[in-house]
Amino acid sequence: MKTIVKKINEQDMEPGCLREAATILKEEGLVAFPTETVYGLGGDALDFEAAKKIYAAKGRPSDNPLIVHIADVDSLEVLAKEVPEKAYILAKHFWPGPLTMIMKKSEVVPNGTTGGLDTVAIRMPNNKIALQLIRESGVYIAAPSANTSGRPSPTKAEHVVEDLSGKIDMILDGGPVGIGLESTILDLTGEIPTILRPGYITKEMLEEVIGPVTIDKAILSKNIDPNVKPKAPGMKYKHYAPKADLTIVEGPVNAVVREINALAKKQREQGKCVGIIATDETYAKYQADVVKTIGSREDEEQIARGLYGILRDFDELKVDVIYSEGFAESNLGQAIMNRLLKAAGYQVVEV
Ligand code: TXA
Ligand code: MG
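Above: inputs. Below: predicted complex with magnesium ion.
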């Protein structure tokens, strides 16, 4: 299959380009498009065949459900069996935006989209291209991140081209995304809303609006108890895995730099090619084959935006081992560390 790649400007969208993408979606095809979090791989959420194609293109296990993207709040009533009051309150505060809500699904949502679950994940993305594509096509768009399963999520169209060129109909290139980490997932089916995946919208932000919120235990701990199963099926896979062996080193910054340099030296003596994920503050202090800065420690948003890109860069550079500094787990730091720990397969050295 030849994949059409089209540049599109969020501030000045070319109608012909969107029309072409919308037609593909209406005809059971797949279109990758930008959202504010990461690029999504879209197909008609109510069409069983389209869902099957999404799983095939990504190489994704079919028990891992898809998020349904909508462009107006009224769509909730179509997709959900019952819409909890809190969903409306949250939608008012955070939509369009990086929050996905889980509710009981209605009859119209096929099991192919929800991985056989009786619940559905719904989100309204904060990106004009995405919203216009939903409106123009008239379909609800099921969209996982537009990467090959197991690779870091795409934060620019080039990443989608790397993974999915030749496997999908079209890629809309709207430039680099703003946030860089996938949406916060909040399960509203229980008594107390539960965060199944941390993201840009934090527990504190949610609690300010709807009161108590809990976090799924399985996503918190570093020494994950294999008996505690994450409630979001996707969180159980070793996601976002770079090709090299990644280890996170945590502790006071100066001690971290010393330890990483010592570990890197040992590896290089054994002939290994070593990469380091540093910060602006520490960049100059490292000796290794490749040292890359992810941004300033003071700027969590910059770190979030840069994380997946840097992991992909290291894949290209063919390093054998990567050491990364750890980050504070407050605010956005929780989402950053959640993704970094998964990429590292939970290998952490504390100093
Ligand atoms: O920011 C995002 O959410 C991006 C953009 C494209 O919108 N999408 C995204 O989709 O990250 P994906 O498929 O890569 O991740 C969806 C996650 C998976 O971990 C999946 O298991 C979980 O959402 N999920 C989907 N439906 C669910 C449900 N009904 N119950 C529990 N977890 C669900
Ligand atoms: Mg994903």
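Residues 300-317 form the longest helix (18 residues).
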